Every structure is written in C-alpha cells, then in structure tokens.
Q: What sequence folds into this?
C-alpha cells in the first residue's frame, strides 16, 4: 500500500480515466440538487411555529384610556348680611359651610384690583373705563420755582436807587491828576442793601474810594412774581476833576 505513495516505487500506479471524473462530478451535482429541491417541494414539513412567528402581523396597540369625568361644579349662593347699610343677623343657619377658595390668577407682571376690567393698566382705579387716558387725567403742571437771584441791567437798577453817597476823591489821586470810571459788580439783597462788591475795572487809587461809597447805597426791593429776590448788577462810579 505504501508503495503507491512513493515516486521511486517500482510498482506502477494505474492511471485513472478522464470520464470517471466527469461521472463523479455529475453524480455529486445531482445529489446536491435533490437536497435543495426536497424542502421546496414539501413545504408542509417546515415547522409551523417559525412560520407563524414570521408571517403573522403583531396585534394593534390597545386603545387609550377614557378621559376622567369632569368634577361637578358646586354653585354657592352668597347671602349678603348688609341691609340698608347695617349688619343684620342671618335668618337661618346653613346646614353645611363651604370653604371658598379663590383661584390665583397667573402672574403676568401686572396686578389687578377687585372690580377691574380686562384690558386695564397697572395702577388703575376700580371702576375705570376701557379706553380711558393712561394714568388718568393729566394733572396741572406745578408752577416753576421762583429764582432767588436775577441779573438786572445797570440802567434799570439805577432807577430804583433811593440813597446815593458820593465817593471821596482820594487826595493822592487828585494830586496825580488821576480820573476815570470804576466798574463794580454788586449783589443787592432782598431788602435793597449792598451785600457784596467786586471790582471789575478801574484805577487802583480810585477803587477803594468807590467801594466805600457804594456800600452805603440803598435800593428799592426787586420783586419777581410778587416775591423779593436778590439782584446782580453792574455799578459805574465816575471820578472827574473839576
């Protein structure tokens, strides 16, 4: 037996004929074909459980549950104990007392009041009218405040001068032949007296004499809306040699 497996064996192997391969191939092909066709011809031999699980559609989903029944609405009869503006005793005692729970409206950023109407505005009053002016009728604007100090021109303020003191000519300025005008800014009080003085222009030798004289001047009180006010004005004091 082992002699056929060796190439150098003296025993010669018999050659197989080609038609044997063809016959073997055809025979094997027929066997495989028969094994494939038998299940297709005899379908009743297939397991019924597998076929039913594949071919039968699943059952439809169950219907939704019915909605819950609406709660019965209880009507509560309100009995007023006020008669002709006076509190009276009840005529009968109720059999049962119901607790009234007010529903809380959703917060929308505005707070209403009892007795309000839809479409109202925050801050409105009870019993208002739809389409009224927002915020109610506009109130009269307050009068502007009266200023405590005003500026008056030189000519107008000179007309109210009641007392004028002439300045003393400084001897040094007289000897030096100095003359001219001293310009002062004055604040006159509500009573007409000089409250403050400030030198704006003029010779230094004449300014002090002008300030000392003007401090003694008096004016009539200046009225604005029938109220006395302070006045800011310009005063000119003239120094002139004869």
A:
């Amino acid at each position: 037996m082992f002699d056929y497996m060796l190439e150098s064996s003296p025993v010669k192997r018999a050659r197989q004929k080609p038609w044997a391969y063809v016959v073997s191939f055809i025979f094997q092909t027929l066997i495989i074909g028969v094994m494939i066709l038998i299940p297709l011809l005899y379908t009743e031999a297939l397991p019924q459980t597998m076929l039913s699980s594949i071919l039968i559609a699943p059952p439809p989903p169950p219907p939704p549950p019915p909605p819950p029944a609406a709660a019965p609405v209880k009507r509560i009869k309100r009995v007023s104990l006020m008669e002709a503006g006076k509190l009276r005793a009840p005529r009968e005692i109720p059999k049962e007392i119901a607790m009234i729970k007010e529903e809380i409206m959703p917060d929308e950023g505005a707070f209403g009041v009892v007795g309000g109407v839809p479409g109202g505005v925050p801050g409105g009053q009870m019993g208002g009218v739809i389409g009224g002016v927002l915020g109610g009728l506009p109130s009269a604007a307050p009068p502007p405040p009266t200023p405590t100090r005003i500026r008056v021109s030189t000519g107008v303020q000179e007309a109210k001068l009641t007392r004028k003191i002439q300045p003393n000519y400084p001897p040094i300025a007289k000897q030096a032949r100095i003359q001219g005008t001293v310009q002062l800014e004055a604040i006159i009080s509500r009573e007409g007296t000089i409250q403050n003085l400030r030198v704006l222009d003029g010779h230094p030798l004449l300014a002090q004499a002008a300030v000392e004289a003007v401090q003694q001047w008096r004016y009539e009180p200046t009225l604005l809306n029938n109220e006395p006010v302070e006045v800011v004005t310009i005063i000119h004091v003239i120094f002139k040699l004869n």
Helices lie at 18-41, 48-55, 154-158, 171-175, 204-214.
